[in-house]
Each structure stands twice: as structure tokens, then as C-alpha cells.
Amino acid sequence: MAKWGEGDPRWIVEERPDATNVNNWHWTERDASAWSKDRFKQLFIGAEIKSNGATIEIQEIEKCEGEASANNRKGKLIFFYEWVLVLKWKGTVDKNDVTYEGSVTIPNLSEENSAHEIDVQVSLKDNVKEAEPLKELMNKEGKQVIRDLLNNYIENLQLEFSKGMILPPKDGISGDKIKNLSSGFNKKVSMQPVLSNCESRSKVTDVTTIEVTEKFQCRSRDLYDALTKIEMVTAFTRGQVKLDPVPGGVFELFGGNINGTFLELIPNEKIVQKWRCKQWPSEHFSIVTIKLDEKSDHTVLNVVQTGVPRSESDTTKQNWERYYWNSIKHTFGFGALLH
After folding, report:
1. Looking at the domain assignment, is residue 10 inside a domain?
2. Where in this chain does the record put each Activator of Hsp90 ATPase AHSA1-like N-terminal domain (predicted)?
3. What is the spatial order of strands in the sheet that 207-216 belongs to?
4. What DSSP designation does 44 have?
């Protein structure tokens, strides 16, 4: 088995002219947020919807909050984006000189939903009878126009940020065979931890300690990033994530089934969390200590979790293995060496 720096092609960079990411093994990331904001302006401002004498034109983007990024891991492209958009429009009815105003709100544009599932909310500034045809037009035809433009954005994002993300491998073989994939998390994957029966909602007195050791075929910094970078945590949990990896910062995973607070972080070495499952008795938290020990050809992860309700210990162990460690290995290829 090759050791890092002694022949493992995933970690040898000096033989490439650009000295980066041989064979596309490392997780690399490009920020697509600024590009996305410009693209939204190009797509939406001036867009028109017309029908039966009614005309609507989108005038401006009143609100554009969120972020987008493109990520490469093992030759696979994964796109993350989450936006809240508010568009302002003006419209006229039957060539009338009176102009009416309204807005369109897209509360959650993300990779979790396909374009036709995106929620589009329409409102009028003044709810007057004369403006109702405009609202009806936007609801019947405008929503589809908006979704088509959002689909255009998604396709453009993937096309634009595929460029240069997948590098030619060291042996010079064309990278055309490397697949360009979106995250696939828009398929409503159910990734909810197993819930067990917790008999009492009162203070827990019967607790135990869980200790687990796992081996990952990666450097400690890669594993640390997988546990603390929001885009990587989103990737292996396959859902929306709240994550603020600083002492005192909160986290919320798996639809709120797991939540807590970061207590201590030592980059690439140690993470300590105040951690709980949603179904545990109210306000009961355990303490999770994760230590990373980088060896010559792998990283050992050791987890000690104190204060686990004894009735929950087996379920908690199963959830750690299934929804954390196995998912991390599968998502990022940290399970085994490539030969």
C-alpha cells in the first residue's frame, strides 16, 4: 500500500505542470455567488409576459440573498445553490395608461428542488379589481416563465462552472470520460435518522458513554473539512444544513433531528460539540468529542460521546455509522484506496 508522498497518485502534485489536484481526487470549490447575481439580472430584468391585452414586465430584482458554488470531488461535479429572490414587476391591461405594480417571490431556489417544483409566489401592490387580470396572468403563465428562467440559470451555472473544474489527469488521458454530475439531492432523498421510543420527557438520569473508532482513507484536514464545511456537510447529509463552526456556533442537521453547539475546534485535530437528537427528552444534551489522528496512509477518527440516554445508545450508534461515517465515505470516496 502506497504511503502519502511515496507513490500514492492522489497526493503527488509535483509532477503536474500546474501542481494541483492530480486525477481530480481532492475536493475543490469555486464560488459562483457573484456570477449568479449577475446572471439573475440578465435573465429577469426586462422579461415580459403577455396575453389577452395584458402585459407584464419585470423591472428589478428587489432582493437577492444566498450563495452558490461548484465543487469537484473524484471527477464529479456537485453544485450547491440556495437563493431567496424577490422580483418587482409592472403591468398594464388593455392598453390602459394606468400601470399596476406587483412582486414575485421565490423563497427557496436550491438544488433540493427541480425547476418545475420551485415555489413562485405572486402578489399585487394594490389589490384593486382593475389589476386582477395581471395577477391572473402571472399565476397562470408568468409562473412557468419564471420557472423556465430559473431552469436556464441552473443549466448555465452547471455549464459555466464545469469549465476548468475537472483537470486532465497526470497520464494525459482525456477527461471527457469523467462525468459531470449535479448533486442529485433534488430527488427528495429521505435521510432522516432512525427514531426510537423515548419513554420519558423528564430529566435523564440513566446515561451511558459511546465510543467509536473509524478509519478513513484521506488526510485529517479533508475529514475535518467534511465535518465543518457547510457545503461538504450538505453533501453527505443530503439536505439543508445550519452550520456555524466556531466556538459557540450552532448546527442543525437532518431536518432538525440533530442539533447542538460547537464547544471547541482545533483544525484538523479535534471537534467538541454539545449534541442532541430531537427525540431525546427536552433540553438533554450529550457531549461529543471527535479526535482525528493522521497516520501514514489513513486517518483514524475517534468519537467519545458522553451523556447518551441508555435507552438511546444502540440507536445513536447506528445513526452515527449509517448517516455520518458510511455516508462520508461514500460521498467523498474516503472509504478505500484506489489502485
Report:
1. no
2. 29-163
3. 207-216, 299-309, 286-294, 270-277, 258-266, 250-253, 242-243
4. H
- Beta carbons of 98 and 130 less than 8 angstroms apart: yes
The H-or-E segment that residue 102 falls in is strand 100-110
Q: State which of 143, 160, 177 marks the end of a domain.
A: 160
8 A C-beta contact, residue 146 and residue 58: no
115-145 pLDDT, tens per residue? 888 999 999 988 788 888 899 999 999 999 9
Retrieve residue 133's grid coordinates. Answer: 387580470
Reported as a single tens digit per residue, the pLDDT across 65-112 is: 988 888 776 667 778 888 999 999 999 988 777 889 999 999 989 887
The answer to whether residue 199 is domain-embedded is yes
The C-alpha angle 226, 176, 7, rounded to 5 degrees, equals 55
How many domains does the chain divide into? 2
Cβ pair 103, 68 in contact under 8 A: no
Helix axes 230-237, 220-228, angle to 10 degrees: 80
Question: What CA–CA distance (Å, rounded) separates 242 from 249?
Answer: 10
Listed as ranges, residues in the chain with pLDDT below 50 are 1-25, 167-192, 194-201, 337-339
Model-level pTM?
0.52
Cβ–Cβ contacts within 10 Å for residue 270, how many?
14
Q: What are phi and psi of 75, to 5 degrees?
A: 75, 10
The whole domain housing 103 covers: 28-160
CA distance 68 to 65: 10
Beta bridge partners, 277, equal 258
As given in the structure block, the three cell numbers for residue 194 are 432512525
Let me know if residue 16 belongs to a domain: no
